Amino acid sequence: MRTDDLIKALDADATSKAMPLQSAWWLAAGAAAVIAAVVFLLTIGPRPDFMAAAHTMRFLSKFVFTIVLAVSAFALIRALSTPGASTGRAMVGMAAAPVLVAVAVVLELFMVPEALWGTKMVGSNMMICMAFIPLIGLGPLAIFLWMLRYGAPTRPVLAGAVAGLLAGGLAATFYAAHCFDDSPLFVATWYTIAIAALALLGALGGRFFVRW
Amino acid sequence: MSGKDEAELSRLMRAAIAGDERAYADFLHRIAALVRGFARRKIVQGGVDPEDVVQETLLAIHVKRHTWRQDAPVLPWVYAIARFKLIDAFRRRGRRIEIDVDDIAETFAEPETETVSERDINRALDGLSPAQRSVVSAVSVEGRSIGETAAKFGISETAVRVSLHRGLAAIAKRFGQGRFGRE
């Protein structure tokens, strides 16, 4: 087939419509949040003293970390799924959550006696954390990988990993409402491992599932 | 000249997305010439036919045109897709090449004309269902309109549009997965 002939066919299909990618991303984010919320409420749910805990800095700081991660990953994945879009600023933005966690860890090390560091880090919930962050994030990750297929990521493996970070940030935001371990030492260790698992899964999905 | 090209091409693409077929044909012809120049300059040793890259890029531009932000310049979007498809073409043929990712010079590519040879797209076309293949061939190679194609096969225009749309999407998908023959 000559290129001019191909153009005739593409032109005849000019009127077919698809939702603009940027709008679709917002829909996908909404759907992913709903799925994560449903899985969360049907399984572990919020901790009983949620309202009381909401007055403590350590409890609230968990949401700052996870929401900042989700917001920065959302900005980056929208750029990564658009060919030619500049990703520099969004990449820099990805450092925000790790920097905040690092600062909180340093503060925590000053405030907590050395003898308690180990206890704070190991916490009481690490297995639940490692199981439920990936579990809650699985549905959102599937949606985000599907969105990458709908988009056109020129770096599919990286985009897949960011899809995992986004799903992880979202899932961890819900999980944080359940977990009794509020120390940044716990968050920096176990949340990171659980979210990294989702990022790895996302990168694999990007490699094998996101073809265009 | 690049700035003027950019403004004109963005305008054509916006009109195309709004449903202006003439603007879309104009846009695709200009893009084909630019991408042809780009591919010919990047492919210095054999193995990959530049025209295959042109066709794959046009198909990807078509099925992914909802990823272009209408307030962004269109040429960086086009060249990002062309570069991705070029690298993909080399990867399929088992060789690695270095692409200068920020080569701004490609925006100044001179339009070039097509050469004819056996095309990857023909192999991809062979993988379609018979109904899709005959509709795509009628509209492209035979140059029939949607109405003429509908009359030829005795089906509705809507059915022609659906077959065409699905057929093009299927070809683009096969290109994306590298499943169309040539080993």
What does this structure look like?
The complex is a heterodimer of chains A (212) and B (183). Chain A is an all-alpha fold. Chain A has 10 helices and no strands. Chain A has helices spanning 3-12, 21-42, 50-53, 57-80, 88-93, 96-111, 117-122, 126-150, 156-178, 184-208. Chain A is elongated and about 75 Å long. The model of chain B has no long low-confidence stretch (mean pLDDT 86). The termini of chain B are far apart. In chain B, helix 3 (50-63) packs across helix 4. Chain B folds into 2 domains: 1-117, Orthogonal Bundle (Rna Polymerase Sigma Factor, Chain: A), CATH 1.10.1740.10; 119-183, Winged helix-like DNA-binding domain superfamily/Winged helix DNA-binding domain (Arc Repressor Mutant, subunit A, Orthogonal Bundle). Chain B has 183 residues and is mostly helical. The longest helix of chain B is centred in the N-terminal third of the chain and has 22 residues, at 21-42. Chain B contains 8 helices and no strands. The A-B interface holds A 1-16, 18-22, 24, 81-85, 151-152, 154, 211-212 and B 16, 19-21, 24-25, 28-29, 32, 51, 54-55, 58-60, 62-69, 72, 76-81, 83-84, 114, 116, 119, 121-122, 125, 136, 139-141, 143, 145-146, 161, 164-165, 168, 172-173, 176-177. Chain B: Residues 120-170 form the RNA polymerase sigma factor 70 region 4 type domain. Chain B: Residues 31-96 form the RNA polymerase sigma-70 region domain. Chain B: GO terms for molecular function: DNA binding; sigma factor activity.
Write the layout of secondary structure elements.
The complex is a heterodimer of chains A (212) and B (183).
Chain A: H1 3-12, H2 21-42, H3 50-53, H4 57-80, H5 88-93, H6 96-111, H7 117-122, H8 126-150, H9 156-178, H10 184-208
Helix pairs in contact in A: 2-8, 2-9, 4-6, 4-9, 6-10, 8-9, 8-10, 9-10
Chain B: H1 2-17, H2 21-42, H3 50-63, H4 74-92, H5 120-126, H6 130-139, H7 146-153, H8 157-177
